Amino acid sequence: MQLAQKIIIADDHPLFRAALKQAVTQAVPGVEIVESDSLEAVQAAVDNHSDADLVLLDLHMPGTNGFTGLVFLRGQNPGIPVVVVSGSEEPYVMKRALDYGASGFIPKSSPLDVIADAISAVLEGEEWLPQEIADSLDDVTEEDQKFANDLASLTPQQFRVLTMLTEGLLNKQIAYELNVSEATIKAHVTAILRKLGVHSRTQAVIQAQRLGVEPPKTELG
């Protein structure tokens, strides 16, 4: 007997999670749905459900900024496809999501039947973008792709530290937040700089901010 498909919905807005659940159920009858509302929660969900068939990922959740969460998930869990579902609907954002490893980009403004069709297409192994966007944009630069690969090499804890660096926190503040010693944070920072090929915290933050995406004005990221 074929096992039911399993999809992880990662969005911090309960109402939109409910709408996505409706679209997912329409696309995949009998599907098992796992919900999460932050990057840490979706990583835990992926760890606990390594047999998941798909992650539907919001770009703007606690613990992530723009494409950083996408790149992190693809680096840590390359076997599970990720589709970005976001209110940031600029064409370059959609195309760059695919360049950074997403299997599709679904605008949050899409009707439920379109969302369902997109989910079905990705589960069948296709990439999906809105038709008017799919063939009209340039590829990501080699420099951006290299940085995405470097970022994907970070461990989950190193990624958390880098995220906190971009928020302007000091080592001692990060150590307090993560309940570890300041020496441990210093070691993480050293490893982050080495993996990203930079020489200072400031350079690491500037690099990470390149993957940022402005939240949509509707606040439904």
TrEMBL record:
SUPFAM superfamilies hit by this protein: C-terminal effector domain of the bipartite response regulators, CheY-like
Source taxon at top rank: Bacteria
Keywords, comma-separated and alphabetical: DNA-binding, Phosphoprotein
UniProt feature coiled coil, ranges: none
GO biological process: phosphorelay signal transduction system; regulation of DNA-templated transcription
Chain positions found as 4-aspartylphosphate: 58
Domain called HTH luxR-type: residue spans: 147-212
Domain Response regulatory, first and last residues per copy: 6-123
A GO MF label: DNA binding
Record-linked PANTHER family: HTH-TYPE TRANSCRIPTIONAL REGULATOR YHJB-RELATED
Protein name according to UniProt: DNA-binding response regulator
